[in-house]
Design goal:
This protein is α/β, with parallel strands linked by helices and 239 residues long. The chain contains eight helices and ten strands. The strands form two sheets. The chain has an eight-stranded mixed beta sheet with strand order 8-9-5-4-1-2-3-10, with helices on both faces. Strands 6-7 form a two-stranded antiparallel sheet.
């Protein structure tokens, strides 16, 4: 069974209790996104945004709140997660949903976006570099790309598995890690300029504190194309 299918089944099962579980763990990725978007120069004029791996809509909520004039396309492979997202934002005219794998959406979409964000999703793909390059092609000039990722951190042997390039977690799901320097090189080779990057405390757990990485990058200024997908009041599918 592919990791994509495993991830879909895993998150379908987690969907009803997902938000409570993240709150209990003190997950900080979406707060980090909000803080960084407040300093993005195009925040007030952004017309379109893309949420990759939208889940139950926690990241979507940040995008809708910080980008007051933008429509948001939320992409996720799990129907269970998208069902929760739809209940969170009933018939929101600014919200569009796409039940697709992240890679499939990026490779087939004919839309472009002023902001592309992903929080807590890219670690499930062994091809994070490819995702960054595909996302860069859909990002409008002047647009903002923000992502979190699971960093491969040297020297943590015996204190969790963040030194390992791969880790199988509950449900048989595989998490993929890369050094921060590798992802920064991918961002640069995709034609984006990194504005901010670093590590943050993703989940405080005492001696086993889990650290996440984040990158915020931009392109030169330009127009927006379309919003893409179907409205949140309709079945979630772009194609």
């Amino acid at each position: 069974m592919s990791n994509l299918v495993t991830v879909e089944k895993y998150y379908d099962g987690l969907a009803p209790t997902y938000d409570d579980a993240l709150t209990a763990k003190g997950w900080a990725a979406n707060e980090l996104l909000g803080v960084n978007l407040q300093d993005y120069p195009g925040r007030k004029t952004a017309a379109t945004a893309l949420d990759l791996g939208a889940g139950t809509g926690l990241t979507t909520a940040v995008l809708l709140g910080e980008l007051a004039g933008a429509s948001v396309t939320a992409v996720d492979v799990s129907q269970g997660m998208l069902d929760v997202l739809k209940r969170r934002f009933p018939a929101n005219p600014r919200l569009y949903l796409a039940r697709m794998a992240i890679e499939d959406y990026l490779r087939t979409s004919n839309c472009t976006f002023d902001v592309i964000a992903s929080a807590g999703a890219l670690q499930f793909s062994p091809n994070i570099g490819g995702i960054i390059h595909w996302a860069a092609k859909l990002l409008n000039p002047g647009g903002c790309f923000f992502t979190t990722y699971n960093p491969q951190i040297e020297g943590l042997e015996g204190r969790g598995l963040q030194h390992a390039p791969e880790e199988v977690i509950d449900g048989g799901v595989t998490i993929y890690r890369q050094p921060s320097t590798t992802l920064l090189e991918e961002v640069a080779s995709a034609g984006l300029t990194t504005n901010r990057y670093g590590l943050y405390v993703s989940q405080p757990q005492g001696d086993l504190t889990i650290r996440g990485g984040y990158i915020m990058a931009t392109k030169p200024i330009g127009p927006s194309a379309c919003s893409g997908g179907q409205n949140s009041g309709i079945a979630a599918r772009t194609r």
